């Protein structure tokens, strides 16, 4: 298992965090002249997509296991939230696009892709390479907890610190969000599971997550810590549906813990919301995939 740093400083501005933008010559082409955007959440266990076209508001999320290959030799190219198998991930994305994008759709112009806060530069390059080769269009990366906050309706531009825990199937990340960016973060690579899919969260995983969140809260500057605690902790990801996790966090941290209303889909919905933001600030984007 690759090591994950206890915390990672946030980039200068969240909407531009870890952006990878590229235009290719072989877009997925539809029948009309409009442009199509795609929000893509590549999870360890599940992959979720949400299409967005100008003048349309789509709420239909496509979901499938994050697996590729024949039933007898299935591969899981995303491990602990990171792309570990680039060809396999590209195959996964191509299959998902075949199911979601039809000839009646406009051309696919941009993919808004979620990546873990803990992803290294190499992890991000692997995700970029796999998705851009499969989609054949521009790819923009946004850190998943920030997207999840947007998907839950959190005002990420608020100067008051907001705590969020994104508990996925292979990685749990806790972040402090304020002034439109991730101010601080922590991560542990543990299997959180999802009760809705028949997989639970182990006591060991809950212990590690609780310790990680407690450490993150302790690092918040003293002048802001009380405000962050008053705001409470919002949980997204499939692990948010584990009631024992919320109870343990509430008891150990002594703060209000609130699972999101639709926790598993928070990230992909937030990515879809951010698609229009990226289009409105296109002049600020840069291709830093070298």
From TrEMBL:
Q: Name one GO biological process term.
A: cell morphogenesis
Question: Where does it localize?
Answer: Cytoplasm
The primary location reported for this protein is cytoplasm
Check the record and name the Gene3D superfamilies matching this protein.
3.30.420.40
Q: Which GO terms describe its molecular function?
A: ATP binding
Which InterPro entries has this protein been placed in?
Answer: ATPase_NBD, MreB, MreB_MamK-like
* Keyword Nucleotide-binding among UniProt keywords: yes
Q: Keywords on this record?
A: ATP-binding, Cell shape, Cytoplasm, Nucleotide-binding
**Source taxon at top rank:** Bacteria
GO annotations of cellular component type: cytoplasm
Annotated PANTHER family: CELL SHAPE-DETERMINING PROTEIN MREB (PTHR42749:SF1)
User: Which family, according to UniProt?
Assistant: Belongs to the FtsA/MreB family.
In Swiss-Prot or TrEMBL terms, this protein is called Rod shape-determining protein
Q: Which organism is it from?
A: Microbispora hainanensis
């Amino acid at each position: 298992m690759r090591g994950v740093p206890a915390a990672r400083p946030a980039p200068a501005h969240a909407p531009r965090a870890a952006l990878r933008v590229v235009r290719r010559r072989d877009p997925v082409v539809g029948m009309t002249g409009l442009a199509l955007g795609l929000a893509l959440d590549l999870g360890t266990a599940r992959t979720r997509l949400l299409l967005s076209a100008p003048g349309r508001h789509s709420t239909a999320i496509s979901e499938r296991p994050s697996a590729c290959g024949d039933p007898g030799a299935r591969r899981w190219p995303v491990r602990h939230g990171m792309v570990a198998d680039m060809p396999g991930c590209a195959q996964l994305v191509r299959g998902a696009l075949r199911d979601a994008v039809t000839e009646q759709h406009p051309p696919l112009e941009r993919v808004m892709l979620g990546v873990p806060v803990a992803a290294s530069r190499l992890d991000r390059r692997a995700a970029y390479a796999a998705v851009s080769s499969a989609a054949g269009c521009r790819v923009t990366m946004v850190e998943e907890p920030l997207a999840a906050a947007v998907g839950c309706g959190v005002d990420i531009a608020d100067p008051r610190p907001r705590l969020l825990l994104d508990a996925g199937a292979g990685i749990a990340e806790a972040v402090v969000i304020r002034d439109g960016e991730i101010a601080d973060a922590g991560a542990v690579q543990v299997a959180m599971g999802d009760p809705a899919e028949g997989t639970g969260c182990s006591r060991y995983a809950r212990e590690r997550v609780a310790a990680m969140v407690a450490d993150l809260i302790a690092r918040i500057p003293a002048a802001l810590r009380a405000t962050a605690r008053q705001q409470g902790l919002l949980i997204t990801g499939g692990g948010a549906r584990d009631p024992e996790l919320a109870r343990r966090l509430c008891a150990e941290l002594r703060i209000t813990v609130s699972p999101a209303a639709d926790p598993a889909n928070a990230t992909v919905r937030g990515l879809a919301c951010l698609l229009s933001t990226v289009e409105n600030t296109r002049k600020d984007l840069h291709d830093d995939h070298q």
